[in-house]
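Severity: low
Component: inverse-folding endpoint
Summary: output formatting inconsistent between runs
Steps to reproduce: submit the following structure tokens with default settings.
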């Protein structure tokens, strides 16, 4: 993350943090569905778990925000990039993806979110925003730790992981 975004108020920062979590859990859900379509149930389960973690995180943020969050939901959201820092690039996803690859993708994503919030914590002028960003960065770092624990449960990938005995039918 080169330059950290600036927020004019704590409410604006909370709205942004919430919108990022909404985006992340929706992306993980979409990836889970994509894997189910391709009968990749093991990986679908991993993405569902990540979606649940981010959905829970979103509730936690809303709780911490309390009155600072006007109307209780992200009303305005000024993000400069096309996607939130937790969003996943769908072009990285292979339908035969292994659990390890799914977890590496999630890990990359959670690390990016960590760096994003760290950058805000370091540059925010408002101490309340800085403190909250620090907490968000800690949460995201914890998600990386969970992903690492899951990774330990899966052995190295078969070098032929992308060989499909029954490939999808291509029409031209
Ligand atoms: Zn996360």
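Observed output (run 2 of 3):
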């Amino acid at each position: 993350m080169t330059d950290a975004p600036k927020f004019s108020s704590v409410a604006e920062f909370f709205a942004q943090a919430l919108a990022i979590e909404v985006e992340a859990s929706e992306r993980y859900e979409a990836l889970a569905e994509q894997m189910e379509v391709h009968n990749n149930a093991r990986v679908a389960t991993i993405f569902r778990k990540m979606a649940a973690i981010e959905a829970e995180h979103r509730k936690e943020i809303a709780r911490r925000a309390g009155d600072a969050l006007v109307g209780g939901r992200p009303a305005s959201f000024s993000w400069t990039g096309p996607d939130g820092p937790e969003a996943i690039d769908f072009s990285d996803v292979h339908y035969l993806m292994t659990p390890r690859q799914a977890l590496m993708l999630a890990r990359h994503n959670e690390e990016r979110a960590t760096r994003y919030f760290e950058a805000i914590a370091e540059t925010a002028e408002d101490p309340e925003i800085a403190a909250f960003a620090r907490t968000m960065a800690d949460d995201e770092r914890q998600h990386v730790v969970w992903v690492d624990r899951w990774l330990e449960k899966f052995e190295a990938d078969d070098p032929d992981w992308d060989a499909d005995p029954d490939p999808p039918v291509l029409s031209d």
